[in-house]
Amino acid sequence: MHDHDPHDHDHDHDDDDHGHTHAPPQKDHDAGPIGAYEVLEEAVRSLLIEKGVLTAPEIANQVDLMDSRSPALGAKVVARAWTDPAFKKRLLADTRAALAELGIDIGTLAEFHTVENTAKAHNVIVCTLCSCYPKMLLGVPPAWYKSLAYRSRTVADPRGVLAEFGVELPEGVEVRVHDSTADLRYIVLPMRPKGTLGWSEKQLAAIVTRDSMIGTAIPAAPAKPTARKRKKAA
Amino acid sequence: MVKAETSRCRFAPGHKVRVASRPAVGHCRTPWYLRGKAGVVAEIHGTFRNPEQLAYHKPGLPGQVLYKVRFAQAEIWARYEGHAGDHLEADIYEHWLEPLK
Question: Is any Cβ of chain B less than 8 angstroms from the Cβ of A155?
């Protein structure tokens, strides 16, 4: 598929046999008929504004706040926990307070818990009832996290799901699934990969992926070019 | 969330419990696949307003103690194929838990 502008090239469009097909133009998200939930959202939103419960700028600010959250925030927390054992201890004991230390306010809608991956246990997070997700730390969830397949299969066959994500667990590691059924949001503290000794917090944060904080990936240090063998002294 | 006073909690970490096997009408945060299943209380999270009432614009009071309950995967799924140590944790409100001896 091409992602270039269809008119930014000079070959002849009248020729049907020019050997490749063009991708259709991107569909407008509001091109189809409006659905029941969209009507509901619009109705509730305008009523809330009309009755003075909320203002349009307040709604826009909340959208901006959610947009400002991304997995980079979670990665910063993980990197700090990897480099500062006392912080890690506080993070596991009281996630809200530890995040506040880093200037991260997780709001009052939900409590947060950090679950730690170890050499004996691998954690994975799911919300079977809806799509609860640590948004204040990871931003908007990926579409697959909200899919029926992920939500139903992760609780019943977590190892099968992990394998599809490419996660291979060493023999003897148990899998712990956390179903976010209530007022708590979970985040996985992955294990620090080997080969990262002496790395700075910033370097470490760069290898912490979103999926590794959901539990569907394991962070890895990029393979280093083979160290040049030092010439032996004659 | 309010820290739950231990004296007001029906269960403590280590207690064996069973999730009530009853239907619910309307909004409910107790998943079907865990109803009737036996687990162990792993943690007390505190007292939270009852979501079954909050969903209908009621105050949700008195608050319900929320527990982290640990279930062996083999208890939930008869044909679970993973390791024996695999387990699942879910957060269940007190009024959905029954003591198990």
Answer: yes
Closest-CA distance, A215 to chain B, in angstroms, reads 14
Interface of B with A in 42-101 (CB under 8 A): 45-46, 48, 51, 66, 73, 76-77, 80-83, 85-93
Question: Where do the domains of chain A lie?
Answer: 36-67, 69-214
Tell me the nearest-neighbour CA distance from A160 into chain B, angstroms. 9
In this structure, what CATH number is given to the domain that contains residue B20?
A: 2.30.30.50
* Token code pair at residue B52: 């079954």
pLDDT digits (tens, 9 = 90+) for A42-96: 999 999 999 999 999 999 998 998 899 999 999 999 999 999 999 999 999 999 9
| Domain covering A69-214: architecture | Alpha-Beta Complex (3.90)
List of residues 6+ apart from A55 with CB closer than 8 A: A49
End-to-end CA distance of chain B: 30
Instruction: Give the 3-state secondary structure of residue A4.
Output: coil
The pTM assigned to this predicted structure is 0.84
R_g (Cα) of chain A, nearest Å: 23
The predicted complex's ipTM stands at 0.94
Question: Quick check: B48 and A156 CB within 8 A?
Answer: no
Confidence class for position A29, pLDDT limits 50, 70, 90: confident
